[in-house]
């Protein structure tokens, strides 16, 4: 059946049929990818966050669908849909999603682990099980290997500074910092492009090269322009800066 998406009644019928199709594909045919679509439908269209959370949880627990693990992890982090706010559960779901291949989950697991260790200094630890600094670095590395730009960018920053946290030592390594910054830039991370430009300019982690410094400065400026241009996007969850 053809729908006129300019017609309000047709749109309502289309959305209703879409929900029915997703429910059948999930509950009857037991297709994990369709269950995740049902979760997205309940979250974005129906605004029924409680049911969406249940679908995401089941799809992660029962079918090991990585993106659903990421989503229910985010629900545990924010308390969305009345889900218990629990940093440890959020981390565990992120870690599972990461191990199943979801790069967003790798970034969140790494970010949470590193943030938790740093918060512990102030008595504000929020993960029940102690997660080490290097565990966080490992998760970020997995994310970067899966071409997650923010994971690469955060790794670059960590290697740029060097860190010693509770006996975990990450040596300052400007060559590694440059390598991760370059990859993050190539993946579209504007701040990483600016860092690459500065590193070429200063000869930090790479041979000094004024021409390449200017090239990456221009790339950074172009990306800033693109980011500021009016655009409509469908965003999936809040990503920490």
UniProtKB/TrEMBL annotation:
<dbReference type="InterPro" id="IPR011990">
    <property type="entry name" value="TPR-like_helical_dom_sf"/>
</dbReference>
<dbReference type="InterPro" id="IPR006597">
    <property type="entry name" value="Sel1-like"/>
</dbReference>
<dbReference type="InterPro" id="IPR040239">
    <property type="entry name" value="HcpB-like"/>
</dbReference>
<protein>
    <submittedName>
        <fullName>Sel1 repeat-containing protein 1</fullName>
    </submittedName>
</protein>
<dbReference type="Pfam" id="PF08238">
    <property type="entry name" value="Sel1"/>
</dbReference>
<keyword id="KW-0677">Repeat</keyword>
<dbReference type="GO" id="GO:0005758">
    <property type="term" value="C:mitochondrial intermembrane space"/>
</dbReference>
<comment type="similarity">
    <text>Belongs to the hcp beta-lactamase family.</text>
</comment>
């Amino acid at each position: 059946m053809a729908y006129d998406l300019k017609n309000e009644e047709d749109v309502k019928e289309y959305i209703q049929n879409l929900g029915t199709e997703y429910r059948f594909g999930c509950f009857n045919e037991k297709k994990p990818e369709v269950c995740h679509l049902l979760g997205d439908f309940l979250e974005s269209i129906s605004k029924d966050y409680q049911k969406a959370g249940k679908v995401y949880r089941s799809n992660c627990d029962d079918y090991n669908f990585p993106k659903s693990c990421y989503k229910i992890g985010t629900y545990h982090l924010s308390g969305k849909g009345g889900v218990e706010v629990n940093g440890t559960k959020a981390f565990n779901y992120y870690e599972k999603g990461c191990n199943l291949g979801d790069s967003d989950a790798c970034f969140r697991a790494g970010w949470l682990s590193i943030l938790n260790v740093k918060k512990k200094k102030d008595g504000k630890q929020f993960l029940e099980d102690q997660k080490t600094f290097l565990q966080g670095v490992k998760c970020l590395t997995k994310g970067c290997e899966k071409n997650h730009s923010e994971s690469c960018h955060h790794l670059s920053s960590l290697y740029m500074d060097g860190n010693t946290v509770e006996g975990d030592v990450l040596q300052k390594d400007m060559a590694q910092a440059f390598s991760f910054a370059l990859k993050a830039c190539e993946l579209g991370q504007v701040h990483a492009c600016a860092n690459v430009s500065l590193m070429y300019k200063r000869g930090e982690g790479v041979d000094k090269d004024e021409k390449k410094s200017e090239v990456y400065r221009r790339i950074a400026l172009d990306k800033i322009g693109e980011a500021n241009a009016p655009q409509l996007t469908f965003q999936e969850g809040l990503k920490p800066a």
